[in-house]
Amino acid sequence: MAWLPVRLGIGERLDLPPVDNRPSPCESCQNQSCMQTCPVAAFGEGGYDVPVCAQHLATPEGRYCMELGCRARRACPVGAAARYEPEQAAFHMQTFFKAHGGKTGS
User: Fold this and answer.
1) Where are the domains of the chain?
2) What pTM does this model have?
3) What are the DSSP E strand ranges found in the chain?
4) Distances in Å between the alpha carbon of 63 and those of 30, 55, 56?
């Protein structure tokens, strides 16, 4: 018996929700505790320093972020109600780490 792969595409118009143009809550946050919480100061005037963050995750000191989620994100008072459970946060951190060439020493 032989298998014949078949691909099928269905064209359909999907209505997308409108773009959210609200300003970032970070801009009006007086405390910005999340920025102070990042152990490697990956957030700055130049934006988010992804390589610095990924390198940190490869170290023993980065274990907290890998297991519980980004310290800065967990410190955000605005996002507290939508905080991921540790298992989900760990999944996202592992995915981020792998996507940015992360390799642990083990």
Assistant:
1) 30-99
2) 0.70
3) 43-44, 47-48
4) 29, 12, 9
